[in-house]
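Tokens for chain A. Residues wanted.
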């Protein structure tokens, strides 16, 4: 297992310090604010540990309230809102320095039968046919920097559409769609909650990039700043985060210094397993 994946699994293994109270931490080398996918994944771990295993999570809705401080632990308090016959509801608050930095509401449901349909998976090249992130990044940032970025990433990500860095240099590459294949870089145990929490983490890695890609912007262009504002996910069916997943993303709107992006996650065989929506703050210095 890749060392970066081991570190991520350690981050998601929260310490329980009291009934319905958990403590998490950030990577030791994290200098900026806490990554949004990390706090969302940890909050879902906290919620899931208070719910019976026969009730998988089917949705979450979250708000990013304040920037997280990576130098201190994050305390997660879980409120048991409801335990019904079919549904269980939990509300999680992440706290640092005595203030809430993040809130999450999650709903869990027993497995039931019902009507079924799904949107078809887009036709895209298979992940094995696409260049690795190292190959795509090397011409843009140099081999040494590209290798450091890839080594520190617990996911293998293959882009079927342009990178934001590529679109900055070539406006003709701007597009409202971003399509990536991703999977964790190693084998995982069979714990369903772990796979869901890892996808929650990964869902925040490229989603707002879709808004930037449509405008030829990049987080590295020294004029674009942003942050996640809210995040919603719906988990339709079980999946494995250590198998290839197609993350189809698009952006229906941007304005008022905010951008909206949505995503659909498919298995390699074409099953729609997750839907995602996120709004983010996006400010451009010369706008």
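Reply:
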């Amino acid at each position: 297992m890749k060392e970066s994946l081991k570190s991520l699994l350690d981050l998601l293994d929260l310490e329980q310090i009291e009934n319905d109270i958990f403590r998490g931490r950030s990577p030791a080398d994290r200098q900026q604010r806490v990554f949004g996918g990390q706090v969302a994944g940890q909050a879902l771990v906290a919620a899931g540990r208070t719910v019976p295993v026969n009730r998988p999570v089917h949705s979450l809705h979250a708000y990013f309230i304040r920037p997280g401080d990576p130098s201190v632990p994050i305390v997660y308090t879980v409120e048991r809102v409801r335990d019904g016959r079919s549904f269980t509801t939990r509300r999680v608050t992440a706290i640092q320095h005595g203030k809430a930095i993040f809130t999450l509401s999650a709903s869990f449901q027993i497995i039931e039968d019902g009507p079924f349909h799904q949107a078809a998976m887009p036709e895209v090249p298979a992940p094995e046919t696409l260049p690795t992130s190292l190959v795509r990044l090397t011409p843009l940032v140099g081999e040494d920097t590209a290798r450091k970025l890839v080594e520190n990433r617990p996911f293998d990500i293959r882009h079927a559409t342009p990178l934001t860095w590529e679109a900055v240099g070539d406006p003709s590459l701007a597009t409202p769609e971003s399509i990536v294949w991703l999977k964790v870089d190693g084998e995982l145990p069979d714990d369903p909650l772990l796979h869901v929490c890892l996808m929650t983490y990964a869902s925040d890695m490229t989603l707002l990039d879709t808004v930037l890609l449509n405008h030829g912007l990049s987080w590295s262009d020294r004029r674009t700043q942003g942050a996640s504002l809210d995040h919603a996910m719906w988990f339709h069916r079980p999946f494995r985060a250590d198998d290839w997943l197609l993350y189809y993303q698009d952006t229906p709107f941007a304005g008022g210094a905010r951008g909206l992006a949505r995503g659909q996650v498919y298995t390699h065989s074409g099953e729609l397993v997750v839907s995602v929506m996120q709004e983010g703050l996006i400010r451009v210095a010369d706008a």
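Residues 34 and 68 are 5 Å apart (CA to CA). The mean pLDDT is 95.
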